[in-house]
Amino acid sequence: MNTTALEELSFYIGRAYYNYKSLLERTLRDLRLDRHISPGMGHVLFTLFEEETCIIRDIARRTRLSLPTITVLLQRMKRTGVVELRRDPDDGRAVRVRLTALGRSLRPRCRTALKRINGILGAGLSRPAVRHVKRGLARMIESMRRTEDP
């Protein structure tokens, strides 16, 4: 079978990314979260919803995102008033991240956004199919991470 370049896996992933980002932006706007949250922040935000205060390294480990990526996201979240950053009193090298009152207040709407988006993404897929997609995407992410500089 002869496929065109646009039918390659990389182009499907790209189209999925752009469509997902558009869906997320619309959902954030619809739920009036867009003043405080932008695409990419969900990993950090939901980590902090589970544990309201974390060290940056722990957030990176739990989200499987790089420290530079986390740092950029946290600076944007700090500017919007969702988190505050402070030196850890027990370890002066570590920075502790904490949700602000505003950040905590966003939790119900963020959960609504997550439920809405997952409903759209999983529409027409069985539970086993969703698990299969998640496993495949996890393998792709791991393959891409292996190519990063140490």
List the helices and strands and how they pair.
Blueprint: H1 9-30, H2 42-50, E1 53-55, H3 56-63, H4 67-79, E2 83-87, E3 95-99, H5 101-105, H6 107-122, H7 127-146
Antiparallel strand pairs: 1-3, 2-3
Helix pairs in contact: 1-6, 2-3
How would you sum up this structure, described in words?
- It contains seven helices and three strands; from the N terminus they run ααβααββααα.
- The protein is globular and about 60 Å long.
- The mean pLDDT is 92.
- It has a single domain (5-146), classed as Arc Repressor Mutant, subunit A (Orthogonal Bundle).
- A three-stranded antiparallel β-sheet has the order 1-3-2.
- With 150 residues, the chain is mostly helical.
- β2 (83-87) and β3 (95-99) form a beta hairpin.
- The termini are far apart.
- The chain has helices at residues 9-30, 42-50, 56-63, 67-79, 101-105, 107-122, 127-146, and strands at residues 53-55, 83-87, 95-99.
- The longest helix is centred in the first third of the chain and has 22 residues, at 9-30.
The gist of it:
The protein is mainly alpha-helical and 150 residues long. The chain has seven helices and three strands; from the N terminus they run H-H-E-H-H-E-E-H-H-H.
